[in-house]
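We modelled the chain as a single entity of 327 amino acids. Its sequence is:
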Amino acid sequence: VAGFQSNGLFDAIGSRLLAKTKNTAQLMLVLVFLCFFSSMFITNDVALLTFVPFACTILQKCHQERLIVTTFVLQTLAANLGSMLTPVGNPQNLYLYSISGAGLGEFIGWMAPYTLVSGVLLLLVVFVLSAGKRRISLETGALLQTSGAAGRKKNGIYLALFVLSLLSVARVLPWELMLAVVLIVLIFTDRAVFLQVDYCLLFTFISFFIFIGNMQRLPVVSELIRRVIDGKEMIHGTMLISALTCQIISNVPATLLLADFTHNLKNLTIGVNLGGLGTLIASMASLISYKIYAHNYNKTKGRYLLWFTIANVLFLAVLVLVYVFIS
């Protein structure tokens, strides 16, 4: 994914999709659903790191900065919602998929209803917010990063390695083989890409494992979690407790903290994915959009937080109702 980014593939895809947009409704649809669908494969963090700055540039170029708060909020929602569907969409899904023993189809089936409802909701919200369509003039030619035959060759290599990675996640190939192939190929073809990897994010997850492991060893903490999460007195305890825990410590730490205390990994998966909505810290990916917005529009970051919270709470409420209805 770092290779795709450094070679400008995602910007080129976005630019080509935007090339034929004629009004603000079409513009918002493209920018929002780029995050929704791409997050299923490149993770919610990478989708936001890629397409939120891209959206900022596009909206400035077509003089539609009034839509930046709305677009950023919806892009953040879209990335967190789209990433729910697949094991590679976000870190907690990858972890839960690896320990659950569920098949790929089964895992996707757990989250498919919520992803489908989320997509429909996003579509309706975009149409409502852009009801007064304004025509736009957007020249995307300057944004297209044409890297020639060498760039296409590199993207072909990245694509092959990405498929290998997906096959490893799907348990078709052993991860040791995948890791060896990726390292060897990139050492000989594009060593510079190793400098583009977000190692801080990887070490953050390692730190989470260490911190949560120590927390679980505290008798008071482990006994409290064990009593509450599968308590018979609480309907749908695993799902609700995990979603609430995400609001305080974020969904990845919540997953690591609660996974050892329940056998109902399906409800835990649903809970930590839906729980990524709500507060700003419920999903670390949400902080990416906020930091980008605050960096560019610091004086109005309070307005962004207000609309972010309202939208997240409303989407979370609807999806919890969907869970109660189908479970």
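As a brief sanity check on the tokenised model: The radius of gyration is 20 Å. Residues 208 and 253 are 6 Å apart (CA to CA).
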